[in-house]
Design brief:
The protein is α/β, with parallel strands linked by helices. It has 2 domains: about 150 residues, Aspartate Aminotransferase, domain 1 (Alpha-Beta Complex); about 220 residues, Aspartate Aminotransferase, domain 2, CATH 3.40.640.10. The chain is built from 15 helices and 12 strands. The strands form 4 sheets. The protein has a 5-stranded mixed sheet, sandwiched between helices. The chain is globular, with a radius of gyration of 21 Å.
């Protein structure tokens, strides 16, 4: 007799990305030249985890007795206000928004799935998406429905976004839409202003078919080239028709992945509805993790509100963003020379390169010491962890992998 319930049997013990990362690290430890583009953590050009001195000081300055105490279930009010300012400051959505603290952006996603979808229903996102979306959905008895992310011209597929969303609403009566922009993981794509306007218009039309909650996953917002609140300003006109949510995290913006500090934000113009949403989110916190890392909440609050720390973090983060931008530029140059096909890439931790066989491409690249993550129709490259000097090697071996995949595909059809 199996002690596990049926749904829990046969689940993998580790995330595939972390498995690839372990293989790369083992090969490097054996003294071999490795370019590890698998894990989404920002490293400097010497391969060390990038950290900010101001952030480290803020964490060390948290009074031990305060950090050790329980945080409020929904998070400290001053923390929540600071997060709302950071995510929505200067927009009308800020005036009608509430938030709860979560363990990173992942906690925000979990809370949204539990409160804006019924069991058995599907969350809605692009065909390329961060794989834990599916794990979160499965763990909470939901599924994932997608639309083709790109049209034939390589732009965001607005027509497919709308038509598939209408079909989903007709099938299940409501929708939770998750869009990870700017700097989409895994493709690196950022919606431009016209594309955002197209999304807004489509959502307004689709809202006639049933309630919609749009969750904007802001994990990489501080690393984009676009105005960080452009999305919020463009969504203002439909806030009374579509519930606007945002997943906010300190993991990337403060280079503090292990602190597990985040928030789920909800902008709800109606005061009564806003109160119900806030209560529901807080209830889910209590039933999931009870409360968050209090030392982390207190440190991040200081980083968001103390003028001196805000200034220092801004400068230190700008240096990190500049380093990422140099890698993006180097990749765009090298990839263009090799004729690689990939989405518009302006900034962020990741880019994806299209290939007819991702596994073959990844395997051939790994033979040359380059580790990337295979997906359906593409390989994901975590450029955030690749030194500028190694970008050319990375592109060269990915190109070799794609050539091998294309040759195999040609032989199969010959």
């Amino acid at each position: 007799m199996d002690i596990l319930i049926r749904d829990a049997c046969g689940r993998p013990g580790d995330d595939p990305i972390f498995t690839i990362n372990s293989l790369a690290n083992a090969r490097r430890a054996a003294g071999m030249k490795v370019v590890n583009a698998s894990l989404g953590a920002l490293l400097d050009d010497d391969g060390n985890l990038a950290v900010m001195d101001a952030v480290t000081e803020a964490f060390r300055a948290v009074p031990p007795a305060r950090g050790a105490a329980y945080a409020p279930i929904a998070g400290d009010p001053v923390y929540l206000e600071a997060v709302l300012d950071d995510a929505l400051g200067g927009t009308k959505l800020r005036d009608c928004a509430v938030a709860v603290a979560t363990p990173g952006g992942t906690g925000a996603l979990v809370t949204a799935v539990m409160n804006f979808l019924e069991p058995g229903q599907a969350l809605y996102t692009s065909s390329y998406y961060w794989s834990p979306y599916r794990i979160i959905a499965d763990q909470n008895k939901r599924t994932v429905a997608t639309f083709p992310m790109f049209d034939e011209g390589g732009k965001f597929h607005l027509a497919a976004f709308e038509s598939n969303l209408v079909e989903l609403l007709q099938r299940q009566g409501r929708a939770l839409v998750i869009l990870n922009f700017p700097c989409h993981n895994p493709t690196g794509y950022t919606l431009d202003e016209d594309e955002w306007k197209g999304v807004v218009a489509a959502l307004e039309r689709c809202a006639k078919h049933g309630p919609i909650a749009l969750l904007v996953d802001l994990a990489y917002a501080h690393f984009g080239v676009q105005d960080r609140v452009l999305w919020a300003r463009l969504l203002e006109p439909i806030a009374s028709k579509v519930t606007i949510l945002a997943a906010w995290t300190a993991s990337k913006s403060f280079a503090q992945y292990g602190a597990r500090v985040g928030a789920l934000i909800a902008a709800v113009p109606d005061a009564d509805a806003r109160s119900h949403v806030a209560n529901a989110m807080s209830y889910s916190c209590r039933g999931s993790w009870s409360n968050c890392n209090h030392a982390g909440l207190l440190a991040v609050t200081s980083l968001l509100t103390d003028p001196s720390l805000v200034s220092r973090v801004g400068k230190e983060r700008a240096a990190l963003v500049q380093g990422v931008s140099e890698r993006v530029d180097a990749f765009n140059r090298a990839a263009s020379e090799k004729g690689l096909r990939y989405p518009r890439y302006e900034g962020g931790f990741f880019v994806s390169v299209f290939t007819p066989n991702a596994k073959v491409t990844a395997d051939v690249a790994a033979e040359g010491g380059v580790y990337v993550v295979p997906m359906d129709g593409a390989v994901r490259i975590a450029l955030c962890s690749v030194a500028v000097r190694d970008v050319e090697m990375l592109v060269d071996h990915v190109a070799r992998g794609i050539a091998a995949a294309e040759q195999q595909a040609a032989s199969a059809t010959a």
